[in-house]
Amino acid sequence: MRPQAPDEDPYNKLVDEKRAREKEIDDWLPITSSRNAKWWYSAFHNVTAMVGAGVLSLPYAMAQLGWGPGVAILILSWIITLYTLWQMVEMHEMVPGKRFDRYHELGQHAFGEKLGLYIVVPQQLIVEVGVCIVYMVTGGKSLKKFHELVCENCKSIKLTYFIMIFASVHFVLSHLPNFNSISGVSLAAAVMSLSYSTIAWSASATKGVQENVDYSYKAKSTAGRVFNFFSALGEVAFAYAGHNVVLEIQATIPSTPEKPSKGPMWKGVVVAYIVVALCYFPVALVGYWIFGNSVDDNILVTLRKPVWLIATANMFVVIHVIGSYQIYAMPVFDMMETLLVRKMHFRPSWILRFVVRNLYVAATMFVGITFPFFGGLLAFFGGFAFAPTTYFLPCVIWLAIYKPRRYSLSWCANWVCIVFGVFLMVLSPIGGLRTIIIQAKDYKFYS
């Protein structure tokens, strides 16, 4: 009887088949399918993810925080989130030969298979789906604003229809397969975010400080001031929420033992953070300095003139939000497609992708139309989910994995971030909830 050749061993054959199938799935999934991104891709993906339309509400947040606390919280948040972003970039390849391509994979490595999923996935989904819904509303509102500015005598059109118009773009764009394929959209979005931020603060500056400008708190009662302060904390937390997609962006950068992906990724992050500072600080400080506490929660609304410029800025917001929506939707597509293909054993095919992604866009559109006062919901969610994933979850993972020495610099820095993050997480939903209650009591569905 002929001895069995080693390569005919059924066990080996099974392992090879399994490997081939895993590779086929990896080559199909949106996060892992293309790994040839350049460092500047990471720069504009990060700018698009980070600089949300939230930047336009920063002067309003400043008005609720006041000069001292406002400036301190803006700067503290910038430093802390840059530090936690650096941690994420470092931890992407801390196990030799393995890459943590998704936030929850890092969580599973730190807290164990089951617990890691339960800790990271719900928070990450709240953030990503929440942002997509908010951007549906923001896109719709900016289109409506543009329509009103350009055509003053036209018949007013319901916000619902504008949200639908905005969603129609995503029914097309959502079928771009992976991160690299949306890099063009993302670049346009990053340029737009810098443009409308510049319009916002330069148009404010040319107006000059308004007559009888008032820098005191708007709310007269102590309770009102305190709640507004909490709500503003949530708005600031939301402004710095790009961490949910960092590992997924880094997964697209090629990596070898000699040249790990963290080099180019970090370069991109630093460029992105400089752009973020150029967007956030001038808008927040100039806007508040010019208008004081009379500033609206979207500074473009306060700046009614020159009409053509504000209309342009609103259109820029629309283009930027289109890019941001795609960046935040991509990890959600990845999760849904992974679940269907790996757990439910569907065949990776374009039909599966077509159905899943259209359903997701339709769902976010529907929620956006139903609850357009989502801004208040944002301060609420902002506290619950943005603060942990951005401010302290990376620190907790870092402490769990690297176990720095007690009272060493790393240990202290991480604990400071954790305390600050928990403080944000507990306080901002309180303010957000009050805003929702106040807005919802006058609200009629689909009006």
Describe, in plain words, how this protein is organized in 3D.
The chain has 447 residues and is mostly helical. 73% of the residues lie in helices and 0% in strands. It is built from 16 helices and no strands. Helix 3 crosses helix 11, helix 6 crosses helix 14 and helix 7 crosses helix 13. It is globular, with a radius of gyration of 23 Å.
Order of helices and strands: HHHHHHHHHHHHHHHH
Whole-number mean pLDDT: 87
Estimated share of beta-strand residues = under 5%
Q: State the helicity in percent bands.
A: over 70%
- The total beta strand count reads 0
Shape by Cα distribution: globular
Please give the largest β-sheet: none
Q: What kind of oligomer do you see? A: single chain
Helix-strand makeup class: mainly alpha
Radius of gyration of CA atoms, rounded to a whole number: 23 Å
Number of separate helices: 16
In terms of per-residue confidence, which ranges show pLDDT below 50 for 5 or more consecutive residues? none
Head-to-tail CA distance between termini? 82 Å
Keywords: Amino-acid transport, Cell membrane, Membrane, Transmembrane, Transmembrane helix, Transport
Domain Amino acid transporter transmembrane: 36-431
Family: Belongs to the amino acid/polyamine transporter 2 family. Amino acid/auxin permease (AAAP) (TC 2.A.18.2) subfamily.
Pfam family, one: Aa_trans
